[in-house]
Amino acid sequence: MERTAGRKLAVVVCVTNHQGTKTRRMKRFKNIPVEVDRIANQVVDSAFKVHKQLGPGLLESVYETCLTHELKNRGLIVQTQVAVPIVYEGLKLDGRLRLVTWLTN
Q1: Which one of 15, 21, 32, 86 counts the least CB within 10 Å of its CB?
Q2: Is residue 7 in a domain?
């Protein structure tokens, strides 16, 4: 996933609420590319900053807007509400599946 000539690095951020689900052990990833680690740190730092400033209880769209602003300020290219096709039995279906935030650098 490292950036090379003619290729772009993409990181997808998914924020979900998993209250009441069983805790699973996280796999340890070895040899995470430096660029992925750098972007991941920026995303986490930005999310903490936004949450610290706004606090809990607001609509998801408010956090999304502020997080997008913060990530752009850090020099990341951000797209929001990116449509993703659903492929089922070889057919592309319009199920209105959307990635909340899509990052490239």
Answers
A1: 21
A2: no
- What is the number of domains present in the chain? 1
The answer to whether residue 89 sits within a structural domain is yes
Question: Could you please report the per-residue DSSP string of 30-79?
Answer: PS--HHHHHHHHHHHHHHHHHHHHH-SSS-HHHHHHHHHHHHHHTT-EEE
**What is this structure's pTM?**
0.66
Q: Which of 81, 80, 83, 57 is nearest to 69 (CA)?
A: 80
- Residue 38 falls inside a structural domain: yes
Question: Is residue 76 within 8 Å of 104, Cβ to Cβ?
Answer: yes
Integer Cα distance of 81 and 25 in angstroms: 30
Q: Is residue 95 part of a domain?
A: yes
Tens digits of residue pLDDT in 29-40: 678 889 989 999
Which 3 state secondary structure label does DSSP give 84? strand
Dist CA 16 CA 3 (whole Å):
28
Of 82, 77, 83, 104, residue with least CA distance to 11: 104
